[in-house]
Amino acid sequence: MSRDNETSIFGLLFTGVIVFCLAVIAWLMKTFDVEWQTALETAPGLIIWLLVVGAGIFFGIQMETGLVRWGTPLAIALLIPVFKPIIKEAAGVREMRGLVMM
Description:
Blueprint: H1 3-32, H2 36-63, H3 67-77, H4 79-82, H5 84-91, E1 94-96, E2 99-101
Antiparallel strand pairs: 1-2
């Protein structure tokens, strides 16, 4: 494989990751009607959550350990910290100069 092919593969992969991240941000903005900044704060946690839960489901099915059964409540509970910026905005919590205003 030549160096040009490796570079184009990495470039394509990088572009795909960026497009996926922007799609997640756009989905958050449209679904929850939040600003760009709030969606930008929420997206990394949501993407990491998706990767971890997807890996847990995959390995749970492959190893037949029951990981999916006991891990599901934990995965659902971990959505609360992931969506914390959106929940704070929906509740009317605003931070100004380090102070929390309601």
